[in-house]
Amino acid sequence: MNRTGMGRSAFQLLNYALLACVAIACVAPLVNVLAISLSESAYAAAGSVKLWPVHFTIESYIYAFQDKLLLPSYWISVQRVALGVAINMFLTILVAYPLSKEVREFRLRTYYVWLLFITILFNGGLIPWYVTIRQLNLMDSLWALILPSAVPVFNCILLLNFFRQLPKELQESAHVDGAGHWTILWRIMVPLSKPALATLVLFACVNHWNAWFDGLILMKRPEHYPLQTYLQTKVISFNANALLGATKEELESLMAVSDRTLKAAQIFLAALPIMCVYPFLQKYFVKGIVMGSVKE
Amino acid sequence: MKKGYASRMWAREWPMHLMMLPAVLLIVLFSYIPFAGLAIAFERFNPSKGFFGSPFVGWDNFEYVVKMPGFGQVLWNTVYIACMKIAGGLLVPVAFALLLNEVVSTKFKRTVQTLIYLPHFLSWVILGGVLTDILSPSGGLVSSLLGWLGADPVFFLGDEKTFPYVLVVTDIWKEFGFGTIIYLAAITSINPVLYEAALCDGASRWRQVWHITLPGMAPIIVLMMTLSLGNVLNAGFDQVFNLYSPVVYRTGDILDTLVYRLGLVDAQYGVATAVGLFKSVVSSFCIVVSYICAYRFANYRIF
After folding, report:
1. Which of A171, A293, B2, B302 has the most other CB atoms within 10 Å of its CB?
2. So what's the ipTM on this one?
3. Residue B76 carries which DSSP code?
4. A-B interface: how many C-beta pairs under 8 angstroms?
C-alpha cells in the first residue's frame, strides 16, 4: 500500500511537471515575440531577448503605425467582422429553423438539406471559385470577403440540431395561439437558443477576423487588404520573395535582419484583439465545441 | 378536397421557403456555379470568354499534370504530411486528456486548459510569423534553447529534411488543445459509480484508466478517427503557405499550394483546375466513406 502511495505521488509530480511544461510551450513563443517587439532592435537582432524585453522601448510600435496601410486594414477587418458576422448569423438562423422541422411539416426539407450537405461533400476548388467571383464583378470590394462565405453550412447544422432538442410543445402551443413561423422563430426559438447563438457568433467572429487568403487574391489594391492579409504581405510574403533563389547562407542572414522588432510588433498588433477577448470567449468555446461534437 | 389540402400546406410552408431563399441563392452562386466552373479543367481557359466559351481540349490538362516533373512527389508530400497530422492529431489530445484528468487541483487544470488552446484561435499568418522568428537559426528562441543544451542550431524551415516534421509538430501544437477539450468532456460524462465499483474491487489507477476511462472515450475517439479520414488530402494550405519557401518545395509542396502557384501565379487556369478537380474527387470519396463509417461505427448522423 505504501509503495503504491509513493508511486502515485511520484507520478503526480511528473504529471504536473509535464503538463506545466507543455502549457508553457504553448504560450512561450507568443511571449517571446511580445518581448522582442518591446526590445531595442540591436538586442533583438543579436538574439539575446528571451521572455522579457531587453532595454524596453516602444519604438517598433511607433514604426509600425507609421505605415499608412496599417490603420485602414484594421478598419477593413472591423467592417468585415461586423457585417460578415451579422449576415452569417441572420442566414444561419433563417436556414436552421425550417430545416429543424420534420418532413411532414416541411415537405421539401430533405431536398434543402442535401443542397447544403453537398457543399460539404464536394467543392469546386480554388480556381473555379476565384473565376466565379471575378465574373460576378466582386473583385476588390468588401462584399467579395463576405458573400462567398455568407452561409456557414456547419454552423447551420449545429443550430438546427440545437433547435431540434428544444421541446416541441412550445412551438405547437404558439402555433395554436395563432403565431406564424416568423414569430415563432424570433420570439421563441431565438431567445431560447442564446447560449448556442453566442457560441456561433464567436466562431464566426474568429473566422472572419483570421481570414487572410481571400483578401490576398480578391483584393487588388493593398488599401483594401484586411489586417491579416496586410500582415501576410508584410511579415511573410516579403520573406518568400527575398528568399527566392538565395543560398542557404544568404537565407540565414536574411532571416536575421534587424526588422525583427518591427515584424514582432506587427504580429502582436494583429493578434492583440483575439488575445483581449480570448479569456471571455473560452467559456463559450468550450460549450460550443462540446455541442458540436458530443451530440445526443 | 385534395386541392384544399395542397393550398393549406402551401399556406403553412411558404414562409419557410422564403426563409431558405437568400441562403439557397448564395449557395448556388458561390458553391454550385463553381461546380460548373470545373469545366475549366477540360479547356484552354480564356478569362474573357468565360467557362463555356473557351476552347475544349479534353484530357490534355490532366496529361500535362501527370507528366509534370515532381507531381508524384507533391502528391506523396500531401498524403504523407496529412496522414502524420491525422495520427498525431488523434493520439496527442487523447493522451493529454488522460493526463489532465489525473490532475486533482481544478485551478491547475483550468489554467493548463486555457493556455493550451490559445494557439488554436490565432491565424496561420500570425503563427507563421511567430514560428519563423522562433525557429530562425540565428537568435531564435528554439536555437538558443538547443545551444543551451549543447546542440548545433538547426535551420528548421530551410531544410528539406526537417520541414515536413516542423509542419506536423506545429500543427499538433496549434490544434491539440482543442481536441483535448472534446475528450475531457467525454471523460467527465463517464458515470462515477463505475470508478467507485472498481475501487471496491481493488483496481489500480492504471486498471481504471484501461477498463473504464478508455472504453468510455471509445465512441468519441472512433468518431474523430472516422471523420478525420476525409482529410487525407488536406495537408493544410494556410500553414504550408505561410511557412514554406522555394528551398523546401521538394518535401514541403502540397497539392493546394501547387494549385495556387499554377493557377493564380502562373495563370495556367486549366492545369490548376485539373489538379484541383483531382483533389476534390479523391477528397469527396474519402469524406463520403468517412461519413458512412462514422454512421456505421459511431452511430453518428450529421443532421
Report:
1. A171
2. 0.88
3. H
4. 301
Question: What residues make up the domain containing A27?
Answer: 1-57
CB atoms within 10 A of CB B19: 21
Contacts of range A268-277, beta carbons closer than 8 Å, 24 or more positions apart: A268/A33, A268/A34, A268/A37, A269/A61, A269/A64, A269/A70, A270/A227, A270/A228, A270/A231, A270/B123, A270/B125, A270/B126, A271/A30, A271/B122, A271/B126, A273/A209, A274/A206, A274/A209, A274/A210, A274/B121, A274/B122, A275/B118
- Which helix (H) or strand (E) covers residue A284, if one does? helix A260-293
Superfamily covering domain B66-298: MetI-like (1.10.3720.10)
Tell me if B29 and A116 make a contact (CB, 8 A cut-off): no
Closest chain A residue to B170 measured between Cα atoms? A26
Note the helical H segments in chain B. Answer: 2-27, 33-37, 50-53, 60-67, 71-101, 106-116, 124-134, 141-148, 163-188, 192-200, 205-208, 214-228, 237-243, 249-252, 255-260, 269-298
Whether B121 sits inside 8 A of A20 (CB atoms) is: no
Q: Which of B13, B24, B29, B30 to mutate to test the interface with A (most CBs of A within 10 A)?
A: B30
Residue A4 and residue A125 share a domain: no
CA distances from B183 to B73, B88, B94, B167, B195 (A): 35, 15, 6, 24, 18
Of B112, B138, B302, the CB nearest to A157: B302
The verdict on a CB contact (< 8 Å) between B108 and A231 is no
Using a CB-CB cut-off of 8 Å, the residues of chain B touching A130 are 263-264
Query: How many domains in chain A?
Result: 2
Whole-structure pTM value: 0.89
The residues spanned by each domain of chain B are 66-298
What H or E segment, with its residue span, contains residue A14?
Answer: helix A2-37
Q: Among residues 171-230 of chain A, which lie with CB inside 8 Å of chain B?
A: 180-182, 185, 206, 209-213, 217, 228-229
Contact A95 B302 (CB under 8 A): no
Integer Cα distance of A277 and A184 in angstroms: 33
Q: pLDDT tens digits for chain B (303 residues)?
A: 456 787 888 888 899 999 999 999 999 999 999 998 898 999 888 878 877 788 888 898 999 999 988 899 999 999 999 999 999 999 999 999 999 998 988 899 989 988 998 899 999 999 999 999 899 887 788 888 888 888 888 888 888 899 999 999 999 999 999 889 889 888 988 888 998 899 898 888 888 989 999 998 988 888 888 888 888 899 999 999 999 988 899 999 999 999 999 999 888 999 999 999 999 999 999 999 988 888 888 777 776
| Cβ <8 Å between B35 and A128 | yes
A86 residue type, one letter: A
What CATH number did the domain enclosing A160 receive? 1.10.3720.10
**Residues within 8 A of B (CB atoms), A 49-78 only:** 50
- Please answer yes or no on whether A128 and B40 come within 8 Å at the CB atom: yes
